[in-house]
Amino acid sequence: MKLVHTAEFGIGVLRDDGVVDVSAIFEDIPYRSAVDRMPRILGAFHERRDQVEKMAASADITGSATILAPVPRPPKLIAAFRNYFEGVDRERREQDMFLESPDSVLDPGGTVVLPPHPATIFHHEAELGLVIGKRSKDLPADEGAYEALAGYTCAMDVSGRGIGRMGPSRIGKSFSTFTPLGPAIVTPDEVGDPQQLQITLIVNGQQRQSYSTADMEYPVVEMLAFLSSYMTLVPGDVIMCGTNHQGLGPLQHGDHELMEIEKVGRLEVDVVDEQRRTWPYEVDQEMAARARG
Question: Per-residue pLDDT for 167 more than 70?
Fold first, then answer.
């Protein structure tokens, strides 16, 4: 099942022929504003899933549906530090993660706005996103950890390099519009093994990133166990699984960025930079080499 958040009616299910409005199933769920609607619905989704499936299969599609980020403002937005072998046969590095601003989330089809800050470069990073569906603490590092998930989504982690006093600083990842998400939350049963997914990213028709989640240093279950040993995960939390840095390149004014994760979906955004800064339009080989080291 593919859950989506829409501008017109709230919660829907994405089918091959369009979107079905299933918001009536959750009309008794209180929420303060649109930004906290999906986390509250995800908390009730498991017990109402059968109702959602029946309505999604039998109801007509909605005439118009503008798909928004599945979680417009996650309670927590968490990112893995590196987390890929980058094709190198070596021991795993120490696992590490960090928080980003929940206000950096951008809707599918939106525009990444590069800020005027003096970055050395702005990079794209295509990543598998995890969406939490159940309040969880101290999860096991095995298949039992999957019970915490509502599903998977596409995530772009835009990075402004060279910003901040300490390097590598993470502050350059939290600008508004720097975390495009979506279009859907795809339930785990549709995805199967999350360690066998191909991720690609294309900029203006040029393929940049192309890698498999099989290259992860720490797989999804170990990430969930690690995080939940430090903090309580709650419905709507979004975790980005890190990226393979082979294929990273610059983002600049006028770019069109498309990423795809097999079984999960396609996410597209545009890029605007009022300062019209430019970098060599090619893969950043220095970054790729540092990531392999």
Answer: no
